[in-house]
User: Which sequence fits this backbone?
């Protein structure tokens, strides 16, 4: 009977209490005759897990987000598949040329139609490329992208505030409506607070003075959070602080309470979702039990058929265990020492990236390094350093001439820029599946990938050819519902076998 109650979470479970208070499970489904005084344990639907206001705001069936993975790893096809499955999908537009972002957005809009609201695109903080964030926001506004996931931000920027403010209006009943939604992906409370709070007055005044927003929009922006959806990014692939999920979520919940009290906002106006480590039904159920409004998956979708990663890279991911990841310097913030988490098994990328950064931190230039180290650099680059520098300089001269000029006079800076190009190309080679560069693949992923592989081992989802965003999402949410039901039964005093807190993948029609 206990097993039936867990495996049929959409049916009520009927329980009676003896005089001693010990519960008895009577039936699943209809209340048995003669037990009119029995108590009903309500149904658990996957659609009910999380904050129903989130799904309503974004036109989704589930409180589940297929997160953006930069450089087009989260493809338009992935976004479309996620949205059609009833989830929210984000396009991995970060790091792509504006023309490619525009065509990707057009593909999504064409596939989903003008009424679809459960999709968006990625805006990544780009301190190395002045004007890039503004250009991307301008494109999103022009193309009607109404949901933006802002990632890797260390502070609030005027362009994020502008995007939010331009979408605000006053409804007939006096409430403030959002047309543009920011999802702020953060791993620190101090960064989260800037997005949770209304936009700073000084920033709003500057935007009004520049003609970027109206005074009326500035007034509305001063009354609502910049971002109503905050994604707590725990130990994840790519940019990460390797934060444990539970302490991070608790920290952001406390930050929300502080901000709500300071600005007289209802706490419910700020939803907190959880990302990083979301890979099994247990992790999904745990996130919702902690109070997460929604969950966001990333690494595990990278192994799906809709991923922009080449088949060779997806096969490497499918072999990963929870410990087969490593930290290495980030291409976009190499000089600052910012790191990303990548796949270690089957590649040498993490080790090579760290060695490049050690050369840079030592203050060396290519010319001052020992001959052995110069040979190593040329071998890893696959070409002489000077050729790599000329190709790098051509690009840097176009996007940031001042930085190119600095590098012309500073050998250490030249070494850093060439290293950044190598790190950047690692992701490109993985996307293209370049066979002779497998050892240099940069594949962003966290420990969740290994946990997912362990969960699906021996099931229909084990082969990468069978992994779709839809099947992954539906299995995670169905499994989470069953585990939540098992938790309900245990919480009222019933003995629930340990194996019922597990769920094996099944193929959904």
Assistant:
């Amino acid at each position: 009977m206990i097993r039936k109650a867990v495996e049929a979470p959409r049916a009520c479970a009927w329980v009676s209490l003896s005089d001693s208070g010990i519960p008895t499970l009577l039936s699943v489904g209809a209340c048995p005759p003669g037990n009119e005084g029995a108590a009903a344990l309500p149904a658990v639907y996957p659609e009910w897990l999380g904050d129903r206001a989130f799904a309503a705001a974004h036109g989704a069936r589930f409180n589940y987000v297929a997160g953006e993975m930069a450089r087009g790893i989260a493809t338009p096809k992935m976004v479309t598949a996620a949205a059609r499955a009833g989830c929210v999908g984000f396009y991995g537009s970060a790091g792509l040329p504006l023309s490619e972002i525009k065509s990707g957005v057009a593909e999504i809009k064409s596939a989903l139609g003008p009424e679809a609201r459960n999709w968006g695109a990625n805006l990544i903080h780009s301190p190395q490329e002045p004007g890039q964030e503004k250009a991307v926001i301008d494109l999103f506004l022009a193309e009607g992208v109404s949901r933006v996931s802002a990632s890797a931000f260390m502070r609030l920027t005027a362009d994020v505030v502008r995007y939010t403010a331009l979408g605000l209006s006053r409804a007939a009943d006096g409430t403030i409506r959002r047309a543009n939604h920011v999802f702020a992906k953060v791993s620190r409370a101090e960064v989260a607070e800037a997005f949770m709070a209304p936009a700073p007055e000084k920033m709003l005044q500057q935007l009004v003075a520049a003609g970027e927003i109206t005074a009326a929009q500035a007034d509305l922006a001063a009354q609502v959070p910049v971002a109503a959806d905050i994604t707590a990014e725990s130990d994840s692939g790519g940019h990460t602080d390797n934060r444990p999920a539970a302490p991070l979520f608790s920290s952001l919940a406390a930050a929300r309470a502080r901000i709500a009290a300071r600005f007289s906002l209802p706490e419910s106006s700020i939803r907190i979702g959880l990302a990083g480590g979301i890979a099994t039904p247990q992790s999904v159920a745990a996130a919702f039990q902690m109070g997460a409004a929604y969950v966001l998956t990333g690494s595990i979708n990278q192994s799906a058929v809709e991923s922009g990663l080449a088949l060779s890279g997806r096969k490497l991911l499918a072999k990963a265990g929870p410990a087969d990841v490593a930290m290495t310097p980030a291409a976009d913030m190499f000089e600052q020492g910012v790191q990303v988490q990548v796949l270690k098994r089957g590649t040498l990328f993490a080790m090579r990236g760290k060695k490049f950064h050690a050369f840079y931190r030592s203050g060396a230039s290519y010319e001052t390094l020992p001959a052995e180290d110069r040979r190593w650099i040329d071998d890893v680059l696959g070409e002489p350093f000077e050729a790599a520098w000329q190709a790098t300089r051509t690009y840097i001269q176009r996007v940031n001439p001042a930085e190119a000029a600095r590098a012309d006079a500073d050998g250490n800076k030249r070494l850093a820029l060439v290293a950044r190009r190598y790190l950047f190309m690692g992701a490109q080679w993985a996307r293209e599946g370049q066979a002779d560069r497998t050892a240099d693949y940069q594949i962003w992923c966290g420990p969740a990938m290994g946990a997912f592989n362990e969960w699906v081992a021996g099931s229909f989802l084990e082969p990468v050819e069978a992994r779709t965003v839809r099947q992954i999402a539906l299995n995670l949410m169905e499994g989470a519902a069953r585990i939540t039901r098992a938790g309900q039964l245990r919480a009222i005093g019933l003995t629930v076998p340990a194996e019922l807190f597990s769920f094996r993948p099944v193929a959904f029609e």
